[in-house]
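Practice problem 4.
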């Protein structure tokens, strides 16, 4: 009979490859939250998020914007006195959220992540003008103008191509990627 894992165990399993200690080692000292440059934009600070996972508050965690707001700067991971890779935990939560198709409404992150992975798998390269279609609809008119000016400047300086390109030996790359991550529906 299959054993149903707790939410905290599922997240622990998704972090199996990380080099940090398990989140059960958390001292709740708050160093991660105090050092996080994105904490003020998060529904829950990193310290609180770890406590919520430990308490198996799955619905609350999946309704939080915290891990989609994480900037992956690794300040928390470097400073944690318990040696926990908190940044990797944020990635694990993103993967779990996408796997379960459950995330807070109106977030750019899930659509952006899905679009980015599909683009990389299909071409081997990132192409900003297509990626931008996932987040530009959320911008105000003035932000759109600013983005257009920035993009024009990048194109004029040769920093952004006008047409998407593909890497050489794309089939080899796709075979390699499909062996290491489940891509369900991305091609
Ligand atoms: S810095 Fe480490 S030990 Fe302290 S609250 Fe954050 S995760 Fe827990
Ligand atoms: S990696 Fe994420 S959670 Fe950690 S300090 Fe940076 S932004 Fe905050």
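Answer key:
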């Amino acid at each position: 009979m299959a054993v149903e894992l707790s939410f905290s165990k599922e997240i622990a399993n998704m972090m199996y490859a990380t080099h940090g200690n398990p989140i059960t080692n958390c001292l709740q000292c708050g160093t991660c939250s105090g050092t996080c440059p994105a904490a003020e934009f998060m529904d829950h600070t990193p310290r609180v998020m770890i406590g919520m996972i430990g308490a198996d508050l799955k619905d609350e965690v999946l309704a939080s914007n915290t891990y989609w707001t994480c900037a992956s700067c690794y300040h928390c991971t470097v400073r944690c006195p318990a040696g926990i890779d908190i940044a990797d935990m944020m990635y694990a939560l993103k993967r779990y959220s996408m796997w379960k198709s459950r995330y807070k409404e109106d977030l750019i992150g899930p659509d952006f992540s899905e679009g980015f992975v599909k683009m990389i798998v299909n071409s081997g390269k990132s192409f900003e003008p297509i990626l931008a279609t996932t987040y530009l609809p959320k911008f105000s008119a003035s932000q759109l103008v600013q983005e257009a000016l920035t993009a024009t400047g990048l194109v004029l300086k040769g920093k952004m191509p006008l047409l998407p390109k593909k890497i050489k030996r794309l089939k080899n790359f796709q075979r390699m990627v499909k062996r290491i991550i489940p891509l369900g529906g991305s091609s």
